[in-house]
Here is the input.
Amino acid sequence: MKRFRGFVIKEFYHIFRDYRTLLILFGMPAVQLMLFGYVLTNEIKDAKIAICDPSKDEVTRRISDKILSSGYFILEQNLNTVAEVDPVFRKGVVKLALIYEPGFAKKLEKTGKANIQIIADASDPNTANMLVNYASGIISNYLVTMNTEKVPLRIIPEVRMMYNAELKGVYMFVPGLMAMLLMLISALMTSLSITKEKELGTMELLLVSPLRPSQIIVGKVFPYVFLAFIDAVIILVLGRFIFGMPILGSISLLLLESFLFICMALSLGILISNITSSQQVAMMISLVALMLPTILLSGFIFPVENMPVIMQVLCHAMPPKYYITIIKSIMLQGNGIEYVWKETIILIGFTAVFLAISIKKFKRRLT
Amino acid sequence: MPVTSVNVQHLTKRFGETLALDDITFDAGKGELFGFIGPDGAGKTTLFRIMTTLLLPDAGICKVEGYDVVKDYRKIRSICGYMPGKFSLYHDLTVEENLNFFATIFGTTIRENYDLVKEIYQQIEPFKDRKAGKLSGGMKQKLALSCAMIHKPEILFLDEPTTGVDAVSRLEFWEMLKRLKRSGITILVSTPYMDEAGLCDRVALMQNGRIMTINTPRNIIRNYPLSLLSVKAGDIYRLLGDLRKYPDVHSVYPFGQSAHVAFHGPDIEKESLEKFLNKKNHDVVEIMQVEATIEDCFMELMKTPGEVINH
Here is the structure.
């Protein structure tokens, strides 16, 4: 036990004396969270629009007011003719143009029908789509309030976005970010720290000592369990208090699941370091084989349901997917273990398999 | 022969196509300072790694203090001290932390075995708060030796401990080994420097994975079968070529600033050689009969691979 303690103390020295490690450990969660929170947001706020209103009557003014007061749009420019739309778009500032036909109100009154054209800058298709949806939503809403008695039969779908009523991006990226960062810190850091000993030649000395392989492995990963756990807490606290991410379920269950995920990632890190002997290779494997799938295939950014079948199958082999499912369920829906036990068991299974392979493959000798 | 500490029989190790160790057999006695001398690639490191249980031999038997390196590797790991080729220390830990760490993993403390490493460690103790990565080669070497010694091993394996270290530190290091030997510890050391052979009790000369001879340094020199002349002249390169043309010459090779010429038999005609060289327009500085060194023996053994005699 004393030997083990000495080993762990040495590991902490390594970590706390390398400012780059510390930066990755504690700077990255904050930076990533801020990045995803403020920069890479896919919500629309204050999109610049242009309006071409040749009729300038009461109805068109009211519709324009509605749109501009919604919070999504800001009027950049009033256009006189439709022909001006193209040059305005080319400047790149205006994302959406609203064009009323001449005599809008009169036509509406007479025929019960008038046209508005919405033109969007679809060089960014996602944004364009969203803006068009917002704008047409506002317009049809206005129509409903305008003349209730004239249209006798109507079906109004009452949409309610459960668990994320405002469709906020945080709800998506906090769980995703937790999975990504815990994976990175646990797997990358441990695999690097073990291969570093191999490169330095100190692994030779550790092997030619009475330390057991299991003591070496556990001693190596122990500090990272601890540090990754602190990171998980940092992300949760930042997410909760800066971005207002709700934590409806039990916090202890959430932390316990995070702990399980950390163990899974650590055993993966050990596995990587067992099959490589240089820090560079370990880093490449960790980044390419762990980070990319975590970001792309875990449902973090792209919904799994939309992928081709082969990719979907692949997605199910990605441990982070289960972790993201679990913590979303706990945080957003307030679910207990009875809803996530399946995913939990799958994570335990992954951990056990990785650990078993690592221990079996750990070399008590050099080759 | 006194009690054996290391017993190696017909040890063979292959890395793919290359034969790293080819039928190695030797015994090292208890308390002996046993040296392995040979150039890079002779198989010294492979042999040390097998003896320290880091590699498995392909064939043959290797026993350290009676324990088999394959079966009883755990036993060996707790009784041997090992200093790998490059000084494997933690560069981001201080001198004291390094020593402390190696003491701890062997279940001991610096204080408990301080006497053992005192002489070596005292020399680097003034720098005990310095990071190991910032030490000079000589200091790293001393620290690495201290780390290998701190758990009071019965046997020390030092793989090229003097490579990359300045001449003064090398000499100091061998002095330390001599003193360590007095405490009864068996020391196996490898080195590419021929001049260090004389400091060992017995040496094994290695080349291409084979031991060419094992003997005391004095006996190796005594068994040198040839007569040796050292020749110095202005143009050493041309001198070597011309010497090879001289009749009855067995071998010619550069030796520092001069050329060593080996002849069969005891009769050496210095005068006729000088005449021969003068005729070829060499400004001969000196021709001297010299006693063979280990390096001369090594060169000779490389030419005539014979039976290994274990004395």
In short: Chain B has two domains: 4-221, 225-291.
